[in-house]
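Researcher: We're teaching a course module on how sequence relates to structure. For the next exercise, students receive a sequence and then see the predicted structure as tokens, so they can try to spot secondary structure elements on their own. Here is the exercise chain.
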Amino acid sequence: MKLSSQEALVPAVLASAEAPGLTPIQWLVCGIAGLGFAFDLYESLVNALIVAPVLSTLGGMTAGTPEFNLWVGWLFFLPALAGGLIGLLGGYLTDLLGRRRVLLWSILLYGFSACGAAFSTSLPMLLLLRCTTLIGVSVEAVAAVAWLAELFPIPRQRESVLAYTQACYPLGGLMVSGAYYLSVTWAERLPAIQGSHEAWRYTLLAGLAPAIPLMLLRPLLPESPIWQDRKSRATLKRPSLKELFRPQLRRATLLVTLMVACTLAVPFGALQHTPRIVPGLVARQHLSVRQVQQTVGAVYLIQELGSITGRLLFAMLVVRIVKRRRLLRMFFAPAIVVFTWLFFFAARDGLAMFKVGVFCAQALFNGMHSFWGNYLPRLFPTHLRGTGESFAMNIGGRVIGVSAALLTTQLSNVMPGSGVTIRLAYSAGTTALLVLAVALALTFWLPEPASSQLPE
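Model: And here is the predicted structure for the students to work with:
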């Protein structure tokens, strides 16, 4: 259909318009999305802190044994796999039923699943509830990005809103490390859960938090005006997974899915294993179990401060660097150097250097991760935005990428090195270097968005 001269001017006007200040409702929208992003990361990272005490408590396993390593792999991989596969359906439902509705129900799902996981009495029960938690997380992340992208039509404002709300992700890391540290320190003074005071149970229970304000604020949250308008006028096409693989989108879909897989392989294959490396770095200090757990929590806090740094750095760069390829390489290229030093050198040289390395590595990863939240909405049209984002983030990131957790845990059984800690560090470093090198090479084929406007 040919546009009138007035209609044709709309994209240009939006592109050049000064972004107005946010209204109270827009601030509320950003707050809810930011809270959702924060607890997305909370639930994604909590395994890294609790996996060792969980396997000791519910499974009676010893760290470093083949059985222990296998269960670590399952607890990292299977929930993410479930989240990725069913999250793909969530992306489809986001396009079919609306961004807001799917967003709200996904947050409720992972909040109450996290609460239930705190009362687990066996490893299979915990694994099942971790699966439903990650399903909610996987759906929420896609719905929130599509929702935000369509609520803010002015390109510069949209890029800033997406970047700064995603900067709330690291708050989840700070919250989970803080919750774990406080649980370890004060567990004996808290009400018993399942007749005991294990810190991991209180850490999981805190995941219920985002569901509470959501139930109160739900009536105030608007639907995406773009989606709502097309739905009301019956012009919204039905989403189709097959359409992602038609000639005009196939190459881009496959490329970004592989690149997102490489990106998400970094935390699951490397960074989330740092809590199991730290005890080996302080082994000679003869600390008590509680002191070791507190040290793990403190190092994880430093790691998540790196997350905030990386997200804020991305938010400042995304509105200044037009070329998406160049922006992404600014994070991938130095990451190869930093991850090599962290896992092959700093992990042998003591806790002080390890803290510096893990801060820098986490900052670079978070810059990479933020990139996809801003880039993917500009790649897919309105009726495929949730489906396309979901395929890249869930199939790429949570199915293919998360398999890096299994690669690292199995490599640690055969990797050379003097002790469990060194073998794990070398395994994590090997996995990280492999996926970072592949992703950096693929940036040369990354398609540049045709316009600053969202595709129709």
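Model: If you want an answer key for the exercise: Residues 273 and 382 are 38 Å apart (CA to CA). Residues 23-216+243-445 form a domain with the Growth Hormone; Chain: A; fold (CATH 1.20.1250.20).
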